[in-house]
C-alpha cells in the first residue's frame, strides 16, 4: 500500500515541468524515507536525480519499496488537471473509494541505477537561479557550449560562436539585502569545464522551484546543478563535460 | 544494482583522457568504500524488478564484474592514474577484448558451409541475446566480398551460428539482413529522413549539424560519417552493448511513432542507439535506418542461405530420399515459399519448428498476404510468339494500360487492394471495393483476384490513358469525391474458397474466374481474350487492342506450363506492344544518376542525363546511356527542378560507369523513367549488364527518348541488367547482321 499526500500540488507540477523534456520515461522509487527518481537522457550525457523526503508530505505511507515506471509526458498532462493549490494524492496498489481519481498506466522501464558518491568538489558556486537561467539563455544565442571557469576573481561563463564571443563574470557578492540574491563562491582550486548549453537550458526549467541554484564543479567530473525544493528535497542535474576540441582534432580526422 | 554497476563518476573517468593530470587531492585505494557511500537511495526498489526482468543480462554483468576484480592488481601499461580509472579501464578492456576476439574470428564465417561449425565464431552463451556487433561485423565482411557464392556461405554461417545459440533471435537476424522492419504489405516504414539522422548524429556526438553536414559532403555516406564521428561529449555512463533485439525493437518503435513530436521521439530513439554503438556498429546502424544497407546482399541470396542453413541445423527431418542435392533443393523451397508468403515472421518459426522439408506444408499462400504479381517477357512480333508457343494452346489478352492490382476478398467480407509492390492501396480505391463486393457471385466466399485497374469514361464508354488514372488522390479517397472512374479488368484468379489455385493451369483458373463474377461494362469486365493459332488473326487482334486504347497483348499458355508464378518474369507469359516492331521491343525503366548542365536554349536546366539500370545481385546501378531527347521544355524543367534536390557531391559507391563519363552533377537514385530506344549496342563506356554479354564491356542504348516518369516504381525496381542482356541477345538473334557497325557508336 502506498499513499502520499502533498499539500503543495504545484510543487510536483513544477518538478515535472523541469524534467519531462530531458527524460521521457523514468521510474519513481518510493521507500519509507522518501519519493525519488533517477534517470538519464537518451544520450547518457545528463542525469537527473530528484528527492522528495517523506517529511515534506502531509501524509506519507509506504509499506514496501515500490518502483513505478511512468511516462513523464503523460504524468505532466495529468498533473495539469490539478490546480496550483490543490492537494495531490499519489496512491499505489489497490485504491478503494476515492474522489477525483486519475489513473495512469504504469510501464516497465529497463532503467539503470547509478550509485552517486558524494564527492569533494573543487569549486561550488551558489547564485540566484534566475540569474543563472538568464546567462544560459543569453549565451545560447551566441554559441553551443559554455565554458564555466572558477578562479580567485569569480566565476566566468563564456562562449564563442560565428557571430562573436561572450563573457559574463560574476564576483562573490554577499552584501545584499536578501540572502537569496547572494553569489557565493567556495573554491579549493581553480577549475574550467566545457558543457553543451542545450542541456543547461533544459536544467533551468527548474528555476521556479528555488530562488537559488548550486553549481558544483571538479575537473573531469560531471557538473552538478542543484535546485532545492522547499525544505523537502532537491532536484539535481548532472551533466558530463565536453572533451576539449583541440585535443580530438588529430584523432577524428576522417580517413578518406 | 548500484554496487554491481560502475558509478557515473567511474564511468566518466573511463572516458577521460589518458593524459589526465594527476589530481592533487588524495586518492586512497578506496574504490569500494567510496562506492558504498552512495546516495542515500532507499534500497533500490528497482533492483528486484530488474533482476526478474532480465536474469541473463544480469548474470553476464556479474561475470564481467568478478573478473574485473581479479584483474585489478594487474598494472595497465598506460594508466598513470588512480585506482578508479584502473578498474574501469580493465572493464572497458574486457568489452574491447571480447569484441577483438569476435573480430579475429569473424573471418571464419567465410569458410565453406561444410567446414564451418556454428560454435566457431559465437562469443556469447547459448540463449544469450545475439550482440549487434556480430551482425555489424558480418555486414562488413559481406560488403567486402563480391562473389555471390562466398556471400551465401557467410550469410548461411551467420544464420547457423544464431540457430545454434539463440534460435529465438533468428527472425530478427533475418529481418536485419533483409533490411526490413515488417513485411511489405503492412506498410510499416521507419520514416526517417537524412535531416533527422544528421540532427541525431550531431546531438549524440555533441557536434554541430554544420560539422556533420560538411563531413557528409566529404564522405558521401552518413554511415561513414557516423563511423568517423568520435564524440566530443563524455557520457555519464556508457550504455550496455547493443543486442540485435534491442536494435530491432527500437526500429519498430521508431516506425510506430506518429503525430505530434514524433520526429523528436524518433530522434531520441536514434540517439539512444548511437551512443551505445561501438566499432563499426554506427555505420551499419545508420545504413539500416536509412534502409540503404548496400552491402551487395540480395534478398534471393538471403533466402537461399536460409534454406541451406536449415539443412545443416536440421533436427526434425532428413531430406526425402529422392532428393539429390538437398542444399539446392532447400534453397529452392525457401525461395518458393517466400514468393507466396513473403512474411518472415511466419516462415522462420515454421522453419525452426518443423524443418525445411515441411515448409511448403506449414507455410502456404493465404488471403490477406499479397504475393508478387507474375510478369511477362517482352517479344518483338507475332511470328516470334507463334514459334515460341509452337504446339501449345495459348491465349491472347488485351494488355490494359492502368495499375496492376491484387484484390483480396476475405471470408469476413473485407476487401484489400494491393499494388504491384505489395503496398496496401485499399484507401485509394473505395469504388473498387464496392464494385467487387457487389459483382462477386454468392458462391465465391473468399478469393484473390489479379487484375488491372484502368481509368474509364463511362459516358463515352472509353478507356482513358494511364496519365488520367495517376491524377487520382492516393490516400483516404471518399466515394463522393471521385472524379476519375475506374474499370476493373480481371484476368486471373489465384485463390478461391480456401483453395489456392496458383498450381492450377490457366484454363482452370480462368474457369473459376468466369464463374465467380458477373460482368458490368465500365465497372468490372474480364480482360478481352481470344484463343487462336493463326498469325493473321492475332495481328488483327493486336490492332483491335491498340484501337481500344490498350498497350498491346499479353500471350499466355493455357495448359502446359501454365501455373501462376508469383514475382517471376516468366516465359509462359509474353507481352507484345504496339510499337515493338519499330524498335527494340519493350521500353526500359531507368534511373537518372547524373546530369550535364544545359547550354544555349537549355541554360538553367539540365541538358542531358545519365541513366542507369539496376543490378540486384550486386545492388549497384550501372550506367546505360545519356538521354537528352523526348523532353518537352516543361518536362525538362520539371525533371531538373525535382532532381536538383537530389544532387550529391560525388557518385555513390554503388554506381558503375566508365571513366570517361563525367557528368556535372550526380544524383541520389530516386526517380525511375520509362525510356524507349532504337537499338541496344555493346559499349566500351557504359557498364550495363557488364560481364553478361561481354566480359568487360557493357550495353548501351542508341537514340533513347523519354516516355514518362514511372512514379509507381522505386529505383530498385528499374529494369535489371539481366533484362538488358536478354533484350540485347534477343535483338542480336533477330538482326544478326547490323550489329558490328554499332559497336563504337555510342559514348
TrEMBL record, chain A:
Keywords annotated in UniProt: DNA replication, DNA-binding, Nucleus
Coiled-coil zones: none
UniProt entry tagged with the keyword Nucleus: yes
Location in the cell: Nucleus
Keyword Transit peptide attached: no
Domain named Proliferating cell nuclear antigen PCNA N-terminal: residues: 1-100
PROSITE patterns the record matches: PCNA_1, PCNA_2
Pfam families (UniProt xref): PCNA_C (PF02747), PCNA_N (PF00705)
Residue intervals of the Proliferating cell nuclear antigen PCNA C-terminal domain: 115-242
Function: This protein is an auxiliary protein of DNA polymerase delta and is involved in the control of eukaryotic DNA replication by increasing the polymerase's processivity during elongation of the leading strand.
Homology family: Belongs to the PCNA family.
HAMAP family assigned: DNApol_clamp_arch
Protein name (database record): DNA sliding clamp PCNA
Lineage summary: Eukaryota, Viridiplantae, Streptophyta, Embryophyta, Tracheophyta
Automatic annotation (TrEMBL), chain B:
Polar residues biased stretches: 45-70, 80-90
Database matches in Pfam families: DNA_ligase_A_C, DNA_ligase_A_M, DNA_ligase_A_N
Catalyzed reactions per annotation: ATP + (deoxyribonucleotide)n-3'-hydroxyl + 5'-phospho-(deoxyribonucleotide)m = (deoxyribonucleotide)n+m + AMP + diphosphate
Stretches the record annotates as Disordered: 1-90, 710-747
SUPFAM superfamilies in UniProt: ATP-dependent DNA ligase DNA-binding domain, DNA ligase/mRNA capping enzyme, catalytic domain, Nucleic acid-binding proteins
The protein's Enzyme Commission number: 6.5.1.1
Lineage: superkingdom: Eukaryota
Family: Belongs to the ATP-dependent DNA ligase family.
Name of this protein: DNA ligase
Species of the source: Salix suchowensis
High-level lineage: Eukaryota, Viridiplantae, Streptophyta, Embryophyta, Tracheophyta
Amino acid at each position: 500500500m502506498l499513499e502520499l499526500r502533498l499539500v503543495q500540488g504545484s510543487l510536483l507540477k513544477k518538478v515535472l515541468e523541469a524534467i519531462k523534456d530531458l527524460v521521457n520515461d523514468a521510474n519513481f522509487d518510493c521507500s519509507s524515507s522518501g519519493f525519488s527518481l533517477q534517470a538519464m537522457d537518451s544520450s547518457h550525457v545528463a542525469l537527473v536525480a530528484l528527492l522528495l523526503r517523506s517529511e515534506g508530505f502531509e501524509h506519507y505511507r509506504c509499506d514496501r519499496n515500490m518502483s513505478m515506471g511512468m511516462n513523464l509526458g503523460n504524468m505532466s498532462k495529468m498533473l495539469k488537471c490539478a490546480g496550483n493549490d490543490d492537494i495531490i494524492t499519489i496512491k499505489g496498489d489497490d485504491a478503494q473509494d476515492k474522489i477525483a481519481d486519475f489513473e495512469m498506466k504504469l510501464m516497465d522501464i529497463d532503467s539503470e541505477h547509478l550509485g552517486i558518491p558524494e564527492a569533494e568538489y573543487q569549486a561550488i558556486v551558489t547564485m540566484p537561479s534566475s540569474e543563472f537561467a538568464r546567462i544560459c539563455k543569453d549565451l545560447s544565442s551566441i554559441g553551443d557550449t559554455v565554458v564555466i571557469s572558477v578562479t580567485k576573481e569569480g566565476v566566468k561563463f563564456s562562449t564563442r560562436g560565428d557571430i562573436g564571443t561572450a563573457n559574463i563574470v560574476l564576483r562573490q557578492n554577499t552584501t545584499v539585502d536578501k540572502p537569496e540574491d547572494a553569489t557565493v563562491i567556495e573554491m579549493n582550486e581553480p577549475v574550467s569545464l566545457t558543457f553543451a548549453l542545450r542541456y543547461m537550458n533544459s536544467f533551468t526549467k527548474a528555476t521556479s522551484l528555488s530562488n537559488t541554484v548550486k553549481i558544483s564543479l571538479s575537473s573531469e567530473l560531471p557538473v552538478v546543478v542543484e535546485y532545492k525544493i522547499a525544505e523537502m528535497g532537491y532536484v539535481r542535474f548532472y551533466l558530463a563535460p565536453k572533451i576539449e576540441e583541440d585535443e580530438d582534432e588529430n584523432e577524428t580526422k576522417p580517413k578518406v | 544494482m548500484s554496487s554491481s554497476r560502475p558509478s557515473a563518476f567511474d564511468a566518466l573517468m573511463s572516458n577521460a583522457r589518458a593524459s589526465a593530470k594527476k589530481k592533487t587531492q588524495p586518492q586512497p585505494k578506496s574504490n569500494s568504500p567510496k562506492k558504498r557511500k552512495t546516495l542515500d537511495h532507499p534500497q533500490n526498489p528497482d533492483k528486484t524488478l530488474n533482476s526478474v526482468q532480465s536474469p541473463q543480462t544480469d548474470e553476464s554483468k556479474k561475470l564481467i564484474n568478478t573478473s574485473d576484480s581479479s584483474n585489478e592488481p594487474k598494472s595497465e601499461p598506460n594508466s598513470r592514474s588512480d585506482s578508479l580509472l584502473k578498474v574501469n579501464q580493465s572493464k572497458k578492456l574486457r568489452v574491447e577484448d571480447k569484441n577483438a576476439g569476435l573480430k579475429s574470428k569473424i573471418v571464419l564465417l567465410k569458410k565453406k558451409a561444410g567446414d564451418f561449425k556454428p560454435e566457431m565464431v559465437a562469443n556469447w552463451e547459448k540463449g544469450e541475446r545475439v550482440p549487434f556487433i556480430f551482425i555489424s561485423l558480418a555486414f562488413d565482411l559481406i560488403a567486402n566480398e563480391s562473389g555471390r557464392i562466398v556471400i551465401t556461405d557467410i550469410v548461411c554461417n551467420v544464420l547457423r551460428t544464431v540457430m545454434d545459440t539463440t534460435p529465438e533471435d533468428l527472425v530478427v537476424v533475418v529481418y536485419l539482413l533483409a533490411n526490413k522492419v515488417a513485411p511489405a504489405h503492412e506498410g510499416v516504414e521507419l520514416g526517417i529522413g537524412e535531416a533527422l539522422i544528421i540532427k541525431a548524429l550531431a546531438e549524440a556526438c555533441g557536434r554541430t549539424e554544420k560539422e556533420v553536414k560538411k563531413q557528409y559532403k566529404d564522405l558521401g555516406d552518413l554511415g561513414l560519417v557516423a563511423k568517423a564521428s568520435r564524440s566530443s561529449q563524455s557520457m555519464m555512463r556508457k550504455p550496455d552493448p547493443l543486442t540485435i533485439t534491442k536494435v530491432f525493437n527500437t526500429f519498430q518503435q521508431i516506425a510506430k511513432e506518429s503525430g505530434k513530436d514524433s520526429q523528436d521521439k524518433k530522434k531520441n530513439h536514434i540517439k539512444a542507439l548511437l551512443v551505445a554503438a561501438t566499432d563499426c556498429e554506427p555505420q551499419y546502424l545508420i545504413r539500416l535506418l536509412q534502409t540503404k544497407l548496400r552491402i551487395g546482399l540480395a534478398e534471393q541470396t538471403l533466402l537461399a542461405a536460409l534454406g541451406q542453413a536449415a539443412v545443416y541445423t536440421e533436427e526434425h527431418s532428413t531430406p526425402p530420399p529422392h532428393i539429390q542435392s538437398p542444399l539446392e533443393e532447400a534453397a529452392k523451397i525457401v525461395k518458393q515459399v517466400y514468393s507466396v508468403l513473403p512474411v518472415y515472421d511466419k516462415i522462420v518459426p515454421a522453419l525452426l519448428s518443423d524443418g525445411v522439408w515441411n515448409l511448403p506444408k506449414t507455410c502456404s499462400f493465404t488471403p490477406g498476404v499479397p504475393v508478387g504479381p507474375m510478369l511477362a517477357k517482352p517479344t518483338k512480333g507475332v511470328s516470334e510468339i507463334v514459334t515460341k508457343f509452337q504446339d501449345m494452346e495459348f491465349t491472347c489478352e488485351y494488355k490494359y494500360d492502368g495499375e496492376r492490382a491484387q484484390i483480396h476478398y476475405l471470408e469476413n467480407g473485407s476487401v484489400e487492394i494491393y499494388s504491384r509492390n505489395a503496398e496496401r492501396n485499399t484507401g485509394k480505391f473505395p469504388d473498387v471495393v464496392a464494385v467487387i463486393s457487389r459483382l462477386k457471385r454468392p458462391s465465391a466466399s473468399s478469393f484473390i483476384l489479379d487484375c488491372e485497374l484502368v481509368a474509364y469514361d463511362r459516358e463515352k464508354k472509353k478507356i482513358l490513358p494511364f496519365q488520367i488514372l495517376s491524377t487520382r488522390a492516393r490516400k483516404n479517397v471518399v466515394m463522393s469525391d471521385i472524379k476519375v472512374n475506374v474499370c476493373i479488368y480481371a484476368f486471373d484468379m489465384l485463390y478461391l474458397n480456401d483453395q489456392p489455385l496458383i498450381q492450377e493451369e490457366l484454363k482452370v483458373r480462368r474457369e473459376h474466374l468466369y464463374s465467380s463474377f458477373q460482368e458490368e461494362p465500365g465497372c468490372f469486365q474480364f480482360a478481352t481474350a481470344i484463343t487462336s493459332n493463326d498469325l493473321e488473326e492475332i495481328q488483327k487482334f493486336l490492332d483491335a487492342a491498340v484501337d481500344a486504347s490498350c498497350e498491346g497483348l499479353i500471350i499466355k499458355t493455357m495448359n502446359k506450363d501454365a501455373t501462376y508464378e508469383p514475382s517471376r518474369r516468366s516465359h509462359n507469359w509474353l507481352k507484345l506492344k504496339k510499337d515493338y516492331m519499330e524498335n527494340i521491343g519493350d521500353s526500359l525503366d531507368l534511373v537518372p544518376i547524373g546530369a550535364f548542365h544545359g547550354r544555349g536554349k537549355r541554360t538553367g536546366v539540365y541538358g542531358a542525363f545519365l541513366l542507369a539500370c539496376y543490378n540486384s545481385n550486386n545492388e549497384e546501378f550501372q550506367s546505360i546511356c545519356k538521354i537528352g531527347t523526348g523532353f518537352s521544355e516543361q518536362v525538362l524543367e520539371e525533371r531538373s527542378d525535382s532532381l536538383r534536390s537530389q544532387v550529391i557531391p560525388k557518385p555513390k559507391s554503388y554506381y558503375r560507369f566508365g571513366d570517361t563519363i563525367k557528368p556535372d552533377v550526380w544524383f541520389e537514385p530516386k526517380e525511375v523513367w520509362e525510356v524507349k530506344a532504337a537499338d541496344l549496342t555493346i559499349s566500351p563506356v557504359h557498364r550495363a549488364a557488364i560481364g553478361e554479354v561481354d566480359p568487360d564491356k557493357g550495353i548501351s542504348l542508341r537514340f533513347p527518348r523519354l516516355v514518362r516518369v514511372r512514379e509507381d516504381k522505386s529505383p530498385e525496381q528499374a529494369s535489371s541488367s539481366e533484362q538488358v542482356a536478354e533484350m540485347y541477345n534477343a535483338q542480336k538473334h533477330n538482326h544478326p547482321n547490323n550489329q558490328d557497325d554499332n559497336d563504337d557508336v555510342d559514348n
